[in-house]
Amino acid sequence: MKRSAWRYLWSAVEIRNRLLITFALLVIYRLAAHVPVPGVDRAAVQSILNQGGGAGNLLNLLDLLSGGTVGNFSVLAMGVYPYITAQIILQLLVPVIPALQRRMEDDPKAAKEFQERWTYYLAIPMAALSAIGQIRIFNSVAPVLPRFGLEPENILPTMTTIISMAAGTMFAIWLGELISEYGIRNQGLSLIIFSGIVARLPSNVRDLWLEPEIGRRATLIIAFVLLLVITVFAIVIVTQGRRNVPVMYPGRRMGYRQSMPVKGTLPLLVNMSGMIPIIFAQSILTFPAIIAQFFVASQTEWVRTFAAGTINLFSNSRDNGYIIIYFLMVVGFSFFYTDVIFQQQNYGENLKKSGAQVPGVTKGAPTQKYLERVLRRITLPGALFLGVVAVLPFVAGNVFSANAFTVLGSGLLIVVGVVKDTFFGLETELKLRGYDDALLVR
């Protein structure tokens, strides 16, 4: 009878300690998520989230992805997203700046440490800019922070607010690093985001249950469950999808004997970019609305009109124009980011150095070009899938006129991905300690 190694998860002392540390750090993060920004009018924040409209819909989505910290206008309202944005920017700069690319090729370990250090440095100004943008979006609807601005009497409260929100982001990043080091390995930032999204799930379900009309309540709950099941199934299928390219590895010489070449595969993922295109598209789509805020009070009429239209387009997540732009940006960034990452990995040159070869393809640059063509073909369904997942909450919200469907998009993609990675990580930890299913048969 086969016995699962998972029953030893709690009896393995080191793994148990790591799980307890992870849980304790996540509890600290959730407690800190309820610390409000100094001087915020929380009643005004709740009124914006409840009234709907363009800004309300966008901020409800941000509230979901932040785990309710936006709704509380907490010092952790931006979560760890400025750090992720900084990571993306540095990754995109590597192929653009020749010195960085040479550094990555000559000493990958030192280059990785350099990139990690500068990611922290860049995350601080990114957090400050995100704080300013988020506050301006709120203040454009209602004065949630009435003493925010460049007026002499408001300079000190403004600086206090920006510094507290940037410090909250760095605190969340620090907790994530502690989880990766002392808790579940390499899952710190992912679990921070995961805990926030999961914390919002009960309130979303509650909103559906509190619908006053019984018929509409039943319809919404059935639709929510069906879309939830279908989306989870599709996410699992697509994220696991891959194209195995055959590769012949050279045989090894053992004394006077030469072993035969070994046939292997090079797996190319359908969705190599993961959540990055969605995060990047969300970050860029908020910039036009933030910049337009500075021109709404212009003395020129056409400038005021243009600024108001820009704010309405790029802050109204239920608008068809916003949905189309968002979908196209996610698809485009999927191809772009996948291509950048694949170029950095340089499979063609690495296979050539190891003596491996794709059957029927010349080694080196031709192999790289062949793999690029294959990857771009299989990236198309992955990019379209990411685009659909990104806009699904907005489309479902328009169809059913409910904000509870926001969890069905990128939030659910994050949840499924983190659960899958955590599951495989714990399974690896168990096998490293000898708790292997294959050995537990009696």
Describe it.
By secondary structure, this protein is mainly alpha-helical. Helices cover 69% and strands 5% of the residues. The protein has helices at 13-32, 42-51, 53-65, 69-72, 81-93, 98-106, 108-141, 155-182, 188-209, 214-240, 276-292, 301-315, 320-345, 347-353, 365-400, 410-432; strands spanning 242-249, 253-254, 257-258, 262-269. A two-stranded antiparallel sheet has the order 1-4. Strands 2-3 form a two-stranded antiparallel sheet. Helix 1 (13-32) runs antiparallel to helix 8 (155-182) and helix 11 crosses helix 13. The radius of gyration is 24 Å and the shape is globular. Residues 438-442 have low confidence and may be disordered.
Give a quick precis of the structure.
By secondary structure, the chain is mainly alpha-helical.
Topology overview:
Elements: H1 13-32, H2 42-51, H3 53-65, H4 69-72, H5 81-93, H6 98-106, H7 108-141, H8 155-182, H9 188-209, H10 214-240, E1 242-249, E2 253-254, E3 257-258, E4 262-269, H11 276-292, H12 301-315, H13 320-345, H14 347-353, H15 365-400, H16 410-432
Antiparallel strand pairs: 1-4, 2-3
Give the tally of β-strands.
4
Please report the number of helical segments. 16
For the sheet with most strands, the description reads: 2 strands, antiparallel
Portion of residues in helices?
Answer: 55-70%
Strand order within the widest beta sheet: 1-4
Rounded mean pLDDT is 80
Strand content: under 5%
Descriptors:
442 residues, two-stranded antiparallel sheet, two-stranded antiparallel ribbon, 4 strands, globular
